[in-house]
Amino acid sequence: MGSAKNTSNASRKARIEEMRRAERARERRGRALTITVSAVVVAALGVGGYFLVDKASDDSDSDSKNSAQDWPKYKVSADGEKVWGKLGRTHVTKTVDYPMTPPVGGDHNQVWMNCNGDVYKKEIPEVNAVHSLEHGAVWVTYNDKAKPADLKKLEAKVKATPYSLMSPVKDQKDPVMLTAWAHQRTVTGADDPKVKEFFSTYVQGKQTPEPGAACTNGLGQ
Questions:
Q1: pLDDT per residue over 34-46, tens digit each?
Q2: Which residues of 124-151 are buried (b: 16+ CB within 10 A; e: fewer)?
Q3: DSSP per residue over 58-95, as a string?
Q4: CATH 3.30.70 fits 68-202, yes or no
Q5: Please, which pLDDT band fits residue 26 given cuts at 50, 70 and 90?
Q6: Which of left, alpha, beta for 117 (phi over 0: left; psi -120 to 50: alpha)?
Q7: Model pTM?
Q8: Buried b (16+ CB within 10 A) or exposed e, 161-192
C-alpha cells in the first residue's frame, strides 16, 4: 500500500512538473510574441513618424513657395478685363511671390491696408493691400508714366469712395490700372468710362470674399 501511495505521489509530481514546463513554454512564447509585436509597432511608428515629418516638411516647403504655376489661369473679357479663378486666402507672415503686378488676390497678411478712400503717396506692402481687396476694396495704382491730371482726378474719386485706395506701383506694366479681388484692368486715364464701371461693379461687389469687413483700423502710412 505504501508503494502504491509513493507511486501516486510520484505521478502527481510528474504531472505538476509537466504542467510547469508547459506553463514556462507558454510564457516564453508569450514573451517572444510580445517582443515581436512591440518591434513591429515601434518600426511602424518610426516609419509613420518619418512620413509625417517628411509630409510636414513638404507642406512647409510648399507653403514657402508661391510660384506662378500654383495660380489659376486668368481669362480676358471682350473689353480687356482680366478675371482669375479661385484664389488662396491664407493669412501669412512672409512675403508672397505674386505672379502679377499689382496682385489681384491670394495669400496675404492678416492686417489690411486702410481702404476708406485712402490715397498713399508711396508704395504700400502688397500683402496688406491684397487683404483690402478681400474686404471688397478697389485699388487704383499707377506708375511714373501716368499723367498728373489723371492722378488728380483719380485721387478725388478715391477720396470720395469708401472701400477704395490708391498708391503708386512703379513696376506695373501700364500707367493706370484698377484692381479688385480676382479682377484687373488697364484704363487710358481718369476719364475712361471703364473707371466708373469698375468702381460701380467691384466696390463691395459680388466678387468680395468678405463683404462688409472693415477698411479702417488697419495699416496706414
A1: 444 444 444 444 4
A2: bebbbbbbbbbbbbbbbbbbeebeeebb
A3: HHHHHHH---GGGSPPPEE-TTS-EE-------B-SS-
A4: no
A5: low
A6: left
A7: 0.70
A8: bbbbbbbbbeebeebbbbbbbbbbbbbeebeb
